[in-house]
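re: ur question from yesterday

yeah so i grabbed the chain u mentioned. its 233 aa long if i counted rite. heres the sequnce exactly as i have it in my notes:
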Amino acid sequence: GAVLREVLSRPERTKLDGGDDLAFYDVPRFVKHVDADFLDKVTELYRQRIPEGAAVLDLCSSWVSHLPPEVYYSKVVGHGMNPSELARNPRLTAAFVRDLNKEPEGWPLEDRSLDAVVCCVSVQYLQQPERVFAEIYRVLKPGGVCIITFSNRMFYSKAIAAWRDASGYARCQLVRQYFQAVSGFTEPQVLTETLGEAGSLVGRLLGPLTRLLQRSSSDPFYAVVSYRNFRPE
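ran it thru and got these structure tokens back, copy pasting raw so excuse formatting
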């Protein structure tokens, strides 16, 4: 779980809006920042990778967690920047507010206490991702999974310089490097579709070109997935 290297330079960590992040998120935003097709893929990925009964941390959460509604989890802890949004999230059994750019470490969670950590469309705002990912490693059990999902939408003024004008490919490689900067994570896997899409009869019949056209009509889906120490069979 040690940080092996710094991924970002000082300029790459900067934001156009250097104001207080907690103040920026002080007003609740009860909206979904990406479209339904993207969120369906997030939910399907969670369904595939997070076991039933798992203890889950929804990092950078809000009023909705996108977890599959039919799956039971032993607990779902939410972290976020707005207490009103977290209080309205029906999946959360506990929650805490914290500015990870000021306090990236020392979360109120025990070592090796979680089966999964998820973060949806928020990784672009982390100014100290190496230390945040080391903390993710700390709270995961061996074999626990971390799922980072993102698209091309963002609060542009609050995204870090390394992210703002990068391509989708470059952003995937950046998140891969966040995992690789912390000792003990498995080789990160980049996904642009879920197994359900690629392996279904409909998916096989549509063909690559049609699937590409479908993707271009909605928010692009990117995910980077890694496990602490090993991936369970």
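noticed a couple things. DSSP finds eight helices and seven strands in the chain. also The chain has one domain: 10-228.
anyway ttyl
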